[in-house]
Design a protein that fits this description.
Helix content: 25-40%
Structural class: alpha/beta
Shape: globular
Number of helices: 16
Strand order of the largest sheet: 9-6-5-3-4-11
Oligomer: single chain
Distance between the termini: 105 Å
Largest sheet: 6 strands, mixed
Mean pLDDT: 79
């Protein structure tokens, strides 16, 4: 009867509304009675007694409820690490992110009192959900609760995986404080961002009317000019896997650029080599190294040919240099200056100084300012003529790290050939071991190897009659299966390129 009376007294226990009118003292007694009943019946009421903060699992579900196709839900115990990884792998997300919700896992929510071993983010495309591993240590392990651990369920930093209902997202923290599994993926049946706004860290790129207007202008501009963008934007995404034969240089760049860019806290009291000189013969991969380096480090990339700095107007060249250095001082990035010897030639010390000596002086001053700054930015200078450069420019503190990019050896030629051969079909009569010595004797560089395969492919189209079909309009998709590069195609291409090199 007591329980019945209490239940009759309560209309909405979560909102604390009662049918009867009681004094404060009577209300306290009633509340105590309710607590006794709750304890005896093991009834869970959220938001009535004690701490009202939702559990980690509940907050995780709130994040899922808030997801739309322009929102990112981040789960992390280290925002710096997850933000660095997000910048690095932003191209893999594939949605226009305008808002983020962050579930920040505190150390006291883990039994081991340590940070998560893997951060991750979840995003939505249509009715499908995806997780991206933001690292940094052991990676994610995503599987059904009854499934055993395997390599197939383990994902490395940057991997994107489609989520299935009921899968558990393990983050390396195997023993939780109060629950067996914290992060169980349950697709949401409704869209409700209200709880996420209350209990997660919410950040929006469109917080004001002006932000929304600017965003819409950009979106409309991109949509209406999609045709022009498709025809003009041909920049390819390169990384170190696209570069062959330069493993030693890549290892140096990882040491002096990528790790400091990703983990600046480790190098906080170390003077970084913010000026790096790449030198060697032309067409051996210096520019490709610069592009891949920026992508691997998750940094912005600016390419500039040194001759573009030059101007006939007094002071304009120096101003152009200052403007580019201002950009990289504001935002972490890589400024790549090609044909560096055009603006950094050795000063002769005479009273009749060359007109571009002032440009050298400006570069030296900007490099000194960059070295003293806290910005994690780098200037990569490439040249075929290191001997022409001013001594002060190649000194420590300016461009103190010198990396030679040589002509590829036989092992490098093979690695470059295999990279450019990906996705192409070859006849069985081709032997790479026969081609490599020929290329080595003819002083082939990386660009020559790429051209060898390109011309070989065009030769195959001619030999197989594909060109004739295209001209006659009888080519169909089935003909694609016929295209295969033969030994004769590559040998003809080799002869063409070798003769051109001799003619030069």
């Amino acid at each position: 009867m007591r329980v019945q009376a209490i239940n009759n007294n309560i209309i909405n226990i979560n909102s604390r509304k009662y049918t009867n009118t009681t004094s404060p003292t009577e209300t306290i007694k009633t509340d105590k009675s309710v607590r006794d009943v709750v304890a005896s019946q093991n009834i869970a009421f959220h938001g009535l007694f004690g701490n009202t903060k939702p559990s980690l699992s509940e907050r995780f579900q709130y994040g899922l409820e808030a997801l739309d196709e322009q929102t990112l839900f981040i789960v992390t115990s280290n925002e710096k690490d997850s933000n660095r990884a997000l910048k690095k792998f932003a191209s893999k997300i594939g949605i226009p992110v305008t808002k983020t919700y962050t579930l920040l896992v505190k150390d006291n929510e883990l039994k081991n009192d340590r940070t998560l071993d893997a951060n991750f983010a979840i995003f939505k495309k249509g009715d499908e959900y995806f997780a991206i591993n933001l690292g940094p240590l052991f990676g994610l392990d995503i599987r059904k609760p009854e499934a055993k651990y395997s390599k197939e369920t383990h994902y490395s930093e940057g991997d994107v995986v489609k989520l299935q209902a009921g899968e558990v997202i393990h983050t390396g923290e195997m023993v939780w404080k109060d629950e067996k599994h914290k992060f169980v993926f349950k697709p949401q049946q409704r869209y409700n961002p209200e709880n996420a706004k209350k209990f997660l860290i919410s950040k929006s790129a469109l917080s004001t009317d002006s932000d929304i207007q600017l965003f819409n202008q950009r979106m409309i501009s991109s949509l209406t000019s999609a045709k022009e963008q498709k025809s003009t934007n041909k920049t390819k995404y390169f990384n170190f896997s696209d570069i062959g034969g330069l493993d030693d240089i890549i290892a140096e760049l990882r040491k002096f650029v990528i790790r400091p860019a990703k983990y600046p806290d480790v190098f906080e009291n170390i003077r970084l080599n913010k000026g790096i000189l790449l030198y060697g013969p032309p067409r051996c991969g210096k520019t490709l190294l610069g592009q891949a380096l920026a992508n691997e480090a998750g940094l912005a990339f600016w390419y500039k040919n040194a001759n573009e700095f030059k101007s006939g107007v007094v002071g304009s060249s120096e101003e152009a240099v200052r403007n580019y250095f201002k950009e990289i001082m504001k935002e972490p990035g890589v400024l790549f200056i090609d044909e560096f010897d055009a603006i950094a030639k050795r000063r002769d010390g005479s009273s009749n100084a060359r007109y571009d000596d002032s440009l050298v002086n400006q570069l030296l001053g900007c490099m000194s300012d960059l070295e003293k700054s806290d910005t994690i930015s780098f200037v990569i200078a490439a040249t075929n003529r290191k001997d022409l450069l001013d001594d002060a420019m190649t000194a420590s503190g300016r461009f103190g790290l010198h990396l030679e990019v040589p002509m590829p050896d036989e092992q490098g030629l093979e690695a470059i050939f295999n990279i450019h051969a990906k996705g192409k079909k070859f006849d069985d009569d081709i032997s790479i071991s026969e081609l490599i010595p020929l290329m080595k004797d003819s002083m082939f560089n990386g660009s020559d190897v790429a051209e060898l395969i390109t011309i070989g492919y065009f030769n195959a189209l001619e030999r197989l009659g594909i060109n004739t079909k295209m001209d006659a309009g009888t080519f169909c998709s089935r003909d694609l299966q016929l295209i295969s590069i033969a030994k004769v195609d590559l040998l003809d291409a080799f002869t063409k390129i070798a003769n051109q090199k001799i003619a030069r």
